[in-house]
Amino acid sequence: MQSVSCQSMRAIEDRAFAVHSTAEALMDEAGYKIAQKILHYYPQLQHATAYLGKGHNAGDAIVVLQHLQQAGWTVNLQTPLRLNDFAPLTQKKINALGSEYLQNQQPPAPKSLLIDGLLGIGASGPLRDPITTLAKSINHHRNKLDCTVIALDIPSGVNGDTGEIAKNAVLADHTITIGYPKIGILKSNTVQHVGALSLVTLPELQPQNAELAHHPHLICEHTLTRKRRDFDTHKGQTGRVAIWAGSMGMLGAAELSATAALRAGAGLVTVFIEPSLYPILASMLPPEIMLRPCTSPLKILEERFDAIAIGPGIGSPSEDISNQLIEVVRQTSVPTVLDADMLNLIANQQALPELTHHCILTPHPGEMRRLLPNATRLSREETVKQFLELVPVTLLYKGARTLIAQTNSPLFINSTGSPAMATAGQGDVLTGLIAGLCAQKYDQLEASKIAVWLAGEAAQIALASGSETIETLTAGSILQHLHFAFSQLPRTT
């Protein structure tokens, strides 16, 4: 979903009002959809406190509280303002909820939900009281009471155009933005304040082309689809994946990548492994995955595969194996995902010029610094741009907000994920997912976008289900919850 400036967002809203929509209708629709997002990701919290400024952002928060209350939640307000201080529409929504909530304000409960309804896209510059005091209160209770903070549209104190962070800006765990993503909250420097990102679409809001030009795109469920299979589809039609992964002490990487490719829907997955490691890995892999003892990566080129993945857990191969792996990349014409130790091998052998358009690279910041040493002096966005000027690959620059792009494509920014994913094996799962989707004839860019969104969504669903916590989530948990993430995406023929 393309992002817009705050000025463009206001122009889009004004056109909707001029034609057929009202501010109240849009507020009611947005509030309902935001509440549904909260119930999807945070069903266990059951207690919500909305922090209110004067404007319509506060009105959105009140509508959200109404729907949460109808779902059985306890709701509460925090604001020093009196009823007459609010915008007229927000006053109406407070009265509908019950004006007694203004008189009977209670401190937030531990481990509850805090809703930032302080400021919308019209605000800029430093925070001023009473907003400063309220924002500080949100951040205090987030830290001291282990509360979860939801920002509506943008976190208060974050500039929706520039991404500039004001002093005492709200630290949100999840921002639910309305209509279209705002440019500022997609900037890498805002990650700590924005948290996870979700988009609430309103069909009444239709941009003009000029309002969308040259801005980054947000990867979200509204822009992704999964393929519908014909009833007579067989495994030969859903793709063959070859994986060169694993070494002594790191065979789990091969198991995770292969299982992810299988769970992504690939028809046939084959792992190639050094013969001495065959018995160990054979005992680890699901029975649906084929395992091939092999002394030469060039064997991969002798069979027909629709996608290849190289790198997870391969360690530091011998010079001969390293040269053969580079040769596989050079000779194959199918999508080839290069991850982990393969990226280090490419950096060490200065083989970046060997890479072509069929390569998909998935570096984390450390690997990127080895591939592109001056990345330390660049922003994440600048790093992607400069890297793609050197090599015509599909690039996934991993991080709290993974960036995806190709030469001459827009920059795509992932919306899903959690700090719970800061564990070993997550990249191995992502590699397998991308390869499995490419094998099913998703193009490289689309496969990359879907895979990174699925992995992040699966993590958030695992946390929402109560089966995992920030500390206990593993790469295996992603695989266990992947089917729930897939179910969020619509099918297309």
Automatic annotation (TrEMBL):
Gene3D superfamilies (UniProt xref): 3.40.1190.20, YjeF N-terminal domain
Top enzyme category: lyase
UniProt keyword Metal-binding, yes or no: yes
Chain positions recorded as AMP binding sites: 398-402, 427
Binding site for (6S)-NADPHX: 253, 313, 364, 428
Keyword field: ATP-binding, Isomerase, Lyase, Metal-binding, Multifunctional enzyme, NAD, NADP, Nucleotide-binding, Potassium
Record-stated family: Belongs to the NnrD/CARKD family. In the C-terminal section; belongs to the NnrD/CARKD family.
Entry function: Bifunctional enzyme that catalyzes the epimerization of the S- and R-forms of NAD(P)HX and the dehydration of the S-form of NAD(P)HX at the expense of ADP, which is converted to AMP. This allows the repair of both epimers of NAD(P)HX, a damaged form of NAD(P)H that is a result of enzymatic or heat-dependent hydration.
Subunit structure: Homotetramer.
Protein name per the record: ADP-dependent (S)-NAD(P)H-hydrate dehydratase
Source organism phylogeny: Bacteria, Pseudomonadati, Verrucomicrobiota, Verrucomicrobiia, Verrucomicrobiales
